[in-house]
Amino acid sequence: MLAAVFRGPGELDVTEVPTPGAGTGEVLVKVGANTVCGTDVRILRGEKTRGVARDFVLGHEFSGHVAEVGRGVEGYELGSPVVMAPAIACLRCHYCKRGMENVCVNKRIVGNVVDGGLAEYMRVPAEAVSAGNLFVAHEGIPPEHLALAEPLACCVNGLGNYRVEMDDTVLILGAGPIGLFHLQLALLSGAGKVIVSNPSEDRRVFAKELGAHVVADPTAEDLSEVVSEHTDGLGVDVAVICIGLPSLVNDAIRLARKGGRVNVFAGLSGAGWSEVEANLIHYNELAVTGASDSKRENYDTALRLIESGRIAVDRMVTHRFPLAETVEAIEKSASGEGIKVAVMP
After folding, report:
1. pLDDT (0 to 100) of residue 72
2. CA distances (Å), origin 166, targets 20, 120, 187, 190
3. What's the CATH fold of domain 156-290?
4. Half-sphere exposure of residue 261, counting CA atoms within 13 Å on the CB side?
5. For residue 319, which phi and psi values (nearest 5 degrees)?
6. 195-215, pLDDT tens digit by residue?
7. 142: left (phi over 0), alpha (psi -120 to 50) or beta
8. pTM for this prediction
9. pLDDT tens digits for 171-181?
C-alpha cells in the first residue's frame, strides 16, 4: 500500500509499504480521508520532537471504513464507517485514574509514534480497540468531514476548561480551523456575543458567515477599543487564544473583564515562553487555563455534533489532495490558504 512515512525533519517519504493485517484484538481501517493538522506541519519541520518517532506513518485526523476485524473483536462490522480518538492512554497512571487521560504520562499518539492515517490502510492497536478509541459513525457523511472530529474534540476539551455561560461575550483570537470551531462551540453554549480577531479578510468573512457577531483586523484596528465598544468598557467574559503567538497571552489577559476566563488553547511557537502582566491576573481575579489533546468522551461529543449538523464542517474542508501528493497537501496547509486540507487515499 501507499503511505506517507516520516523519516526525520524535512523528510516525508510517500512510498509503498507492506499492507498491515488485523491481528488479535485489532481492527484494520481502509482510510477514507486524513485532514492535515498544524502538528503535522510542526513535526515535518522539526519543531515538534517530543513524543515523536521516526519511520512511522504520519496523520492523526482520519476516518475510514472497517476493512478487517481481528480475532476477539466485537462491535465492528466490515464496511462500517469509523473514526478514532488518536491518543491511546494507559488508563493506569495518576492522571488517567483522575479523569485526565488527555495528559496521560504514558500515552501513545497515532501519527506520532503509532502508524497513522496518511496511508491506504491503518491498523488500530488492540489496546485502542478495547479502550473504545474507535468509534462507529453514521453512514453517509463524507470521510473528510468525519475526520474533523479529532480537532473538534480538542476544542470540546478546551471548552470544558474555560466554560461559556449564557449571554457571555467571548473573544476568539484567530480564525483558523481551531478558532472557527471555538466560535461555533461558544454559540452553541449560549454566548450572547462572539468577537473574532484575525488579519485575513477571507477568514473574517467566513467567521461572520458562521455566526460571529463582530470581526476585527488586529493589524488595522485597536482590538482593545473594539472590545471596549462591545462590552461597555468591561472586557470580555472569555478570551480564547487560537494562534500560537506568545504576545497574544498578554493581549487576552488585558482584554478580559475582572473575574474573566482566559484559555491558552494553542501551543505557543518557539520555546513557548510568554511574558505576562501577572498583576492583572492577581488584581482582576482571572482564571487562566490551558488545553491539551482530548479525552474519549470529548471525541464522542465531537462526533455527535458533526453527525447532528450542529457544527458546520461541510465548508471547512477547502482543499483535497490524493495520497501521492501528501507533501503538497502539508505545504498547502502550512501556507494558510483555505481552511482545512484533506488527503483522500
Report:
1. 97
2. 49, 44, 10, 5
3. Rossmann fold (3.40.50)
4. 18
5. -140, 140
6. 999 999 999 999 999 999 999
7. beta
8. 0.96
9. 999 999 999 99
For 317, phi then psi, to 5°, come to: -85, 105
What is the C-alpha separation between 64 and 120, in angstroms, rounded? 10
Q: How far apart are CA 51 and CA 344, in angstroms?
A: 26
Q: Which residues of 283-316 are buried (b: 16+ CB within 10 A; e: fewer)?
A: ebebebeebebbbbbbbbbbbebbbeeebebeeb
Domains 2-148+313-344 and 156-290 alike in fold: no
**CA–CA distance, 273 with 247 (Å, rounded to integer):** 9
Helix (H, G, I), strand (E, B) or coil at 86: coil
Cα angle at 34 between 171 and 325, to 5 degrees? 115
Residues 6+ apart with CB under 8 A from 93: 104, 105, 106
59-79: buried (b, 16+ CB within 10 Å) or exposed (e) per residue? Answer: bbbbbbbbbbbbeebeebeee
Give residue limits of the domains in the chain.
2-148+313-344, 156-290
Say which DSSP state 119 is in.
Answer: B
The type of residue at 70 is G
Beta-carbon contacts of 225 under 8 Å, excluding residues fewer than 6 positions away, are none
Altogether, the residues listed in the chain come to a count of: 345
CA atoms within 13 A on the CB side of 58: 31
The percent of residues in the chain predicted with pLDDT above 90, rounded, is 90
Sign of the dihedral through C-alpha 189, 195, 196, 202: positive
d(CA 164, CA 12): 40
The torsion angles phi and psi of 229, rounded to 5 degrees, stand at: -60, -35
The answer to whether 219 and 199 have CB atoms below 8 angstroms apart is yes
Is 45 in contact with 57 (CB distance < 8 Å)? no
* Residue 219: per-residue pLDDT: 96
Looking at the domain that runs over 2-148+313-344, which CATH code has it been given?
Answer: 3.90.180.10
Residue 239 scores a pLDDT above 80:
yes
Of 130, 155, 114, 119, nearest to 75 (Cα)?
130
Tell me, rounded to whole angstroms, the distance of Cα 3 from its chain centroid: 22
